[in-house]
Amino acid sequence: MLSQNRFKESGRNLLTSALLIVVGCGLLGASPSAQTASEPAVKAEMIRRFPEFVQWPGPALQPRDDIRLCFSPNHPFKSEVPALSAGPRVNGHALQVRELRAGDTPDGCHLLYVAAADLDLLHRVRNRPLVTVGDQPDFCKLGGIINFRIISGRVRFDVNVDQAQLVGLKFDSQFLRLASTLIKRQP
Q1: 146 touches 134 (CB < 8 A)
Q2: For residues 107-145, b (16+ Cβ closer than 10 Å) or e, as one string?
Q3: Distance of alpha carbon 145 from alpha carbon 91, whole angstroms
Q4: Residue 53 has what DSSP assignment?
Q5: How would you class 62 by CB atoms within 10 Å of its CB: exposed for 0-12, middle for 13-18, buried for 19 or more?
Q6: pLDDT of 53-102, one tens digit each?
């Protein structure tokens, strides 16, 4: 069983990660000639860091499990994917990366990037404890959990809190404060 205090225990790492996401989001705010990272590179790094802010239900992620980042067949991160499993562990978990082929099922995935051309995958996994990430205008309305947007030249993201709760995922409150929009039912 995962500790309820897991987020508190990793407070220093969480703050560092939050700052890295904010800095990463700012990379695209520079003038075009001063940009140091491409939009796909910034988004890929954010995808790599999102699991630091998620608590999966016990059966979905055991303490000794690796976290699997999966990408739908038509994803735009072809050159960034190989480096995503490198780097530090995430809350004690190693990262594995899997690029799905047409017809593959995302079994064993903890996070799934769904390209616009692969939205059928989103419909197949909507009820699984899986962080779905997309990059299209209605992604969260269609049942996705995190959607990238470009606002004033910077990469930002929305979070569908209702969908996350529906599938048993919990996000750290500091992470939710970084979101541009939180999608949740009105009280």
Answers
A1: yes
A2: eebbbbbbbeebbebbeebbebbbbbbbbbeebbebbbb
A3: 21
A4: G
A5: exposed
A6: 999 998 898 888 899 999 999 999 999 998 998 878 898 999 999 999 99
Beta strands in the chain (DSSP E): 54-55, 67-71, 95-99, 111-113, 131-134, 146-151, 154-160, 170-171, 181-183
Q: Which two tokens stand for residue 144?
A: 């996705």
Query: How far are the Cα atoms of 34, 42, 84 from residue 26, in angstroms, in the given order?
Result: 12, 9, 20
The number of residues in the chain equals 187
Contact 170, 55 (CB under 8 A): yes
CA dist 84 and 71 (Å) reads 12
pLDDT tens, position by position, 21-63 = 554 444 434 334 335 789 999 999 999 999 999 999 988 988 8
Residues 80-91 as b or e (16 or more Cβ within 10 Å = b)? bbeebbeeeebb
Residue 131: phi and psi, rounded to 5, are -75, 115
Mapped onto helix, strand or coil, the DSSP state of residue 73 is coil
The answer to whether the pTM exceeds 0.85 is no
